[in-house]
Design brief:
2 domains, eight-stranded mixed beta sheet, 10 helices, single chain, four-stranded mixed beta sheet, 486 residues, alpha+beta, 21 strands, 25% strand
Length: 486
Amino acid sequence: MTPVRFVLFTLSLAVSMAPLRAAFRAGAFAQDISPTVFPAPVNGSMKANFAKGVNDPMHARVLALHDGSRALVFCVIDACMVPREVVAEAKRLVQAEAGVRPEDILISATHTHSAATLAPVFQSDEDPAYVRAVPALIAKGVLQALRNLEPAEIGWAFGSDPSQVFNRRWWVKAGADYENPFGGRADRAWMNPGQANPKASVPMGPVDPDVAVLAVRAAADKRPLGLLANYSLHYVGGNPSISADYFGEFARELARRLEPAGPLPGRPAFVGIMSNGTSGDINNVNFALPGRLNRAPGEQIRLVARSVADAAMSAYGAIKWQAGLALDSEAAELELGVRKATAEELRQARLTLEKTPRDKDGQFSDRKAIYAREAVKLADYPDRVTVPLQVHRVGALSIASIPCEVFVEIGLRLKRTTPFERHFTVSLGNGYNGYLPTAEHHAAGGYETWRARSSYLEVAAAEKITTRLEQILSTLHARAARNGGK
């Protein structure tokens, strides 16, 4: 028995032997998943970057719930994206040791652009040894959260912080244009156009300022146990080393506020968690301003974390605590087409790669070559892929997950159409299938629609995914109605 296997076994033994009381229970845990071998490849750019160390650690932060008959687990890991294979292996380990079904576990990535690479995108390739190690670390964190289950109260509420979210896609003015990596000039959308760009007019879409909060506290002494938040902000950035970005700082900020003296002796520490909402076209930069403020490394991360924490604490203060809420979940697989280069486009892409010189580091700087390389990589993809979808119910709150960088319009639609009281959507859940723009955004073009391993699903994918999630929401609502709302 390997050391990792032994740890998992002992944790699962504690879980399986815990009495399954009718009382609602909750537990939380934060498991360090930082790389230990450096330099470590880092996602987030079109060229591979390598971190020499850790500024602040990557974690798998877990909130586990149990209503007396079933468990529901939320696990958010500090990663740019998480491959489906990593998710599947982590869930397999948890199911084998604790009996929790894969469809009752949601594993999502925060989308920090300064985490060790788990999924290859553009010219950033993963360290295979690190990828092999991560599933067991995730499972270890989930099992410890399950081991930490104790009688609890639960509640949810929504705050708002409009000050930190801006739509990053702007309309190109009539008569103006720019060249995309494929040599075309017809794109009407411009992602991150720069401060006060004279060719850009106004943002293309809305933002979602909601800060959703799902929290648990100990039934006996009202001690805060854990809090899962959701905010539709892509990331902040600004740290050159391994960093959990504002997602990690938000967790630390909440701990300072809700557990200022630290955990009680013999009690698990409070765990704050920030999940990524529908932020595929949202970032933290207001391009309407004439210039950007110069910030020290990490300064903007701390400012954003404190601002969003203020909204989360406002929501926390409005929670109507309950002795328990019914839990339910439903999962589905949706098959979608893959956008690939035609035979002629593929031939041209290979010619571009042959003609374009590489930099001293062996990588391409030329965007046309970078996207030509992506066309060649996508040629090896299957013509159709299955996309995992999940919807969870916690009382009158619904939570969906999509394995994509989801555009904000999709999340806003699901908030309007849910049959439950409130809703939020977790992006980058249970895998990675690139950006998810709506068909209207595809028609306007722009970075998020350009064919690559970061954006390859069929044009109709957003509508098909949203419609399927709405069907699942209806199924869960009907089931809740049959059970008397429980």
